[in-house]
Design goal:
Blueprint (H helix, E strand, L loop, with lengths): L2 E3 L5 E5 L3 E6 L11 E8 L2 E11 L3 H15 L3 H31 L6 H12 L3 H11 L6 H12 L9 E4 L6 H9 L7 E4 L18 E5 L9 H9 L2 E9 L5 E9 L2 E7 L6 H4 L3 E4 L4 H16 L4 H16 L5 E3 L15 H18 L7 E2 L6 E4 L2 H18 L5 H17 L3 E2 L1 H7 L4 H14 L2 E5 L6 E5 L4 H23 L1
Parallel strand pairs: 6-11, 6-12, 7-8, 8-11, 13-15
Antiparallel strand pairs: 1-2, 2-3, 3-4, 4-5, 9-10, 14-15, 16-18, 17-18
Helix pairs in contact: 3-10, 4-5, 4-10, 5-6, 11-12, 12-16
Protein name: DNA primase
Organism: Pseudotenacibaculum haliotis
């Protein structure tokens, strides 16, 4: 009787009455068009007198040559060897199919909530002030500060389960904490529903399985090094599927064209140190600017001190993460309809209003989607489709969160330059002066000369600064043209959103 032992994945043993076949290095399970192995063959009574060879067991000519070599070396009938090899091939094929089936089952497995976990998560979703409580738990999970950005990011990640997911890009200088924020908020999404990518090639996205990315959160730690994949990424965001034709060899060795298709939708998040992105990429995403203020620095350093002193409650952080992940698992794909959508308008100052308007409406839907267990299920009388409706409270919550993003969308300056200009205004306001020089600002705000000149050239070009000669010498000084311009823009956006909401409340 033959025996087949696969207990050691690096060393299989197939034993017949006369021969032992050792498969060294295990077996590759994913190339079904070949069966390459490294074999060691010996008589059962003499394991040291063995013949070793690597070959493809699907190569008939190679197998026949190997049979004759074994017969000659071990002095045994070719018929016995050939029959033993055929049995071995059959066993290896069955083993490989079994491994693939188990891998697919493992991929399809869903996390099963225990009754206590389900009850806690459902109570959380049905409680009042859901967004406020969510933001508090995000903070308890270890995300320090960034109250608006972290809740925005969490809702954007939640939208992965919707038909039209949202995307975001986090901007910040090196060491500002943008990647940390993204990774910490991503930890609140179930592991089976997110995919973190650190290194990508131009063809990476095309070789995922057809539905492997569907309704997943795709995290890219560094967009600066991902230029090659930005095109397929844009297609996946917009068209919700990507495809590519490749040539593969058929069984006869001839080339055959095959279409690789990867289905979406997906929610994509990435980080960058660049001051601005290629417009076609940034237009598809919410732009989140990391808080680099001194107050945020102090909050983070205080947390670091507590960690060093052993005063951080890690169990509380784990419990908060677990609860929010379970909350995500209880959210199901459901259609959202906004009965107020026709009456919602954006401020005229917003750039790219068509795409920004779509983002605005989709974000309101994301807020409604997150409140799905607090909304009544309705059914379309014609199609029978189940849906939930947006409420005015959803619009108000979305407006409060999105005002900062719309403000940035309405600004003609990139984020880094705007941050510098606001710091400059604060400094001059503290000094109660209007005029300043490069050397003064470089010294007091501690900004590199190259960055400072770049900011000033752009601000002069856009009309935010006025350059003038100093009374003495050949140096230049600068004056801010309008100190209140950003505040006025913010007021106009807030007023436009508030007036629109107030009119809906009055009509209701």
């Amino acid at each position: 009787m033959s025996q087949f032992d696969t207990s050691n994945k690096h060393h299989f043993l197939f034993q017949t009455e006369e021969l032992e076949f050792h498969i060294l290095g295990g077996l590759g399970a994913y190339s079904l068009d070949r069966l390459k192995v490294t074999l060691k063959v010996n008589r059962c009574e003499d394991e040291f007198n063995a013949i070793r060879h690597n070959l493809d067991l699907y190569n008939h000519n190679g197998v026949e040559k190997f049979v004759r070599r074994i017969a000659e070396y071990l002095e045994i009938s070719t018929g016995i060897i050939r029959r033993s090899l055929q049995e071995l091939i059959h066993l290896l094929e069955n083993y490989r199919i079994e491994v693939l089936d188990k891998a697919e089952e493992k991929e399809a497995e869903e996390y099963l909530l225990e009754k206590k976990e389900r009850r806690s998560a459902m109570d959380f979703l049905k409680a009042k002030h859901l967004l406020r409580n969510t933001n508090r738990y995000i903070g308890q999970s270890g995300v320090i500060g960034e109250e608006t950005n972290r809740l925005l990011m969490y809702l954007i990640f939640t939208s992965r389960k919707m038909e039209n997911p949202l995307h975001c890009v986090s901007f910040g200088s090196s060491g500002s904490g943008k990647t940390h924020l993204q990774s910490k908020v991503a930890e609140l999404i179930p592991e089976e529903e997110r995919l973190s990518l650190t290194s990508l090639s131009s063809n990476s996205f095309y070789y995922f399985k057809k539905n492997e990315l569907k309704n997943k959160l795709v995290l890219i730690e560094d967009l600066d090094g991902a230029d090659d994949v930005l095109y397929p990424l844009r297609e996946l965001q917009t068209k919700k599927r990507i495809s590519k034709s490749v040539v593969q060899k058929s069984l006869g060795g001839q080339g055959k064209t095959t279409n690789l298709v990867v289905e979406g939708p997906v929610s994509v998040a990435g980080c960058t140190t660049k001051e601005s992105l290629y417009e076609d990429n940034s237009n598809r995403s919410f732009l989140l600017y990391i808080d680099e203020s001194e107050e945020q620095d102090e909050r983070i350093m205080n947390y670091q001190r507590k960690m060093s002193a052993g005063k951080v409650n890690y169990q509380e952080e784990i419990d908060a993460q677990t609860l929010l992940k379970n909350v995500q698992r209880l959210l199901t794909s459901v259609t959202v309809r906004n009965p107020f959508a026709e009456y919602l308008t954006l401020p005229k100052s917003v750039f790219k209003p068509r795409r920004t308007n779509a983002h605005y409406l989709q974000f309101i839907e994301a807020v409604t989607f997150y409140h799905q267990h607090q909304r009544e299920s309705k059914f379309d009388t014609q199609t029978g489709e189940e849906y939930i409706e947006t409420t005015l409270d959803d619009i108000k919550m979305a407006n409060d969160l999105i005002k900062g993003t719309l403000l940035r969308k309405s600004d003609s300056l990139n984020g880094a330059t705007r941050n510098y200009l606001e710091r400059l205004k604060a400094y001059l306001g503290m000094k109660k002066r209007e005029m300043f020089t490069n050397s003064e600002i470089r010294k007091n705000l501690r900004i590199a000369e190259s960055s400072l000149r770049r900011y000033h050239n752009l601000l002069v070009q856009e009309g935010y600064l006025k350059k003038q000669e100093t009374p003495v010498g050949s140096s230049f000084s600068y004056v801010i043209v309008d100190v209140d311009e950003f505040g006025d823009l913010e007021k106009s956006i807030n007023k436009a959103l508030d007036v629109c909401l107030e009119s809906l409340l009055i009509e209701k």
